[in-house]
Amino acid sequence: MKRLLLLSNSTLPGEPFLGWAEKHIKEFLGDTERKILFFPFAGVTFSFDEYFEVVKERFGEMGYEALGAHLLKDKEKAVENCDAIAVGGGNTFHLVHYLQDGWIELIREKVKEGIPYIGWSAGANVASPTIRTTNDMPIIEPKNFESLDLISFQINPHFTEEQIPNHGGETRPMRIAEFLEINPGIQVFGIPEGGLVQVNGDSMQYKGIGQLSIFEKGKEVMNVSPGSFSY
Amino acid sequence: MKRLLLLSNSTLPGEPFLGWAEKHIKEFLGDTERKILFFPFAGVTFSFDEYFEVVKERFGEMGYEALGAHLLKDKEKAVENCDAIAVGGGNTFHLVHYLQDGWIELIREKVKEGIPYIGWSAGANVASPTIRTTNDMPIIEPKNFESLDLISFQINPHFTEEQIPNHGGETRPMRIAEFLEINPGIQVFGIPEGGLVQVNGDSMQYKGIGQLSIFEKGKEVMNVSPGSFSY
Predict the structure, then answer these.
(1) What is the CA radius of gyration of chain B?
(2) SS in 3 state form for A55-87?
């Protein structure tokens, strides 16, 4: 059974890194020893090592051991030997560029086997079939826009209907409407900050703050409050 | 001599379409008959025809004739027969996807010959070497990130330092810093709404509201007030 914890963001204003997420991560992974393979590839303005150290410490505080995917030369063995996979946020294009270097199939197979997957922000985004609903700047050109394809819908993390006052850039709902125009038949889950979607095989739960917004071409937006839901 | 008018945006709040831009376009194109070849390919949630009709009317009011690039089957002839090129805003990925269908080289050559180029928003963005500094959602996968390459720097339209209050998504300066980290040696021109960069061969002018922000890796941001500047 596929198990995924897809978090909109790592950190809420004024809270420590993975603060709001901690209880959800612990509930999801359980009170057991875990070797979590961490992918720091979304980090751009800080090094993979720096990112890994921060995450290792936080997972350590939760009682789990983190391994840095960037430090492990044998990718197959690295994925084989882990009990969970975590993919951190940052820039989605940078992340998928590095994942496309031999990691995608390995992660996909491992998650199919039931190894839990945790992703926040860009790390949640890349669980989607493609990266076509990222908010990030395309600072690097990946091989293509294909992603981990662990779920059948697209994620839009940091979802908000707000906009900068008096600024004419497209709002998030406008951007998602553009996506649906070109990609009909695929749903977009807009997850607000402080919110997450948990996938347990065929069942799904929305957890955290606010409401999940599900967009589909030609339909009203479906707003989901915390709790189980089907779609 | 290359001549480009690169506008951050088409429309300011409460103003008509191309309202603030009108006097700059007229100054740029002059008081002469012009056949402007218009590219509506950035339009997504409205048709190319609809986009063209709106632009045709506005250019008509300014005394120019607009031709719709999407309606002309013979691309070489279309570019050959125009006196100016205009590329409209919308989604940059959608725009470049269609430009990559045989238009890029033709436009590049024509602009090298001195035919004036006007682009707003995504249309200004694609004058850059690549689309790596777009703000848009990658709703469609172009062949690659290469763009018209009419200038040696990257444009970031709708530039702002503002952000949505209490929202954790990256600010625009943070996104540009990510770009510079991966693409050192290339400058990014952040053009605020209501502002434009006019290129006349080797000389440049900033016009409109506010200040142009020029970003370069390892350097302080350079702020340029309206007037001529070199860089």
Answers:
(1) 17
(2) HHHHHHHCCCEEEEHHHCCCHHHHHHCCCEEEE
Chain B residues in contact with A164 (beta carbon < 8 A): 160, 162-164
pTM, rounded to two decimals: 0.97
Span B100-143, pLDDT tens digits: 999 999 999 999 999 999 999 999 999 999 999 999 999 999 99
Q: Which class does domain B3-229 fall in? A: alpha beta
Q: Which of B138, B167, B193 has its CB closest to that of A138?
A: B138
Separation of alpha carbons A178 and A182, rounded Å: 7
Would residue B10 show up in a list of annotated catalytic residues for this protein?
no
- Tell me if B168 and A94 make a contact (CB, 8 A cut-off): no
pLDDT, tens digit, 9 for 90 and up, residues B127-186: 999 999 999 999 999 999 999 999 999 999 999 999 888 888 889 999 999 999 999 999
- Taking an 8 Å cut-off on Cβ atoms, the answer to whether A158 and B178 are in contact is no
Residues in chain B: 231
How large is the ipTM?
0.95
Q: Which residues pair with A190 in a beta bridge?
A: A156, A213
CB contact under 8 A, A137 and B169: no
Q: Can you give the residue ranges of every domain in chain A?
A: 3-229
Cβ pair B89, B31 in contact under 8 A:
no
Measured in residues, chain A has a length of 231
Helix, strand, coil percentages in chain A from 3-state DSSP, rounded to 5? 25, 25, 50
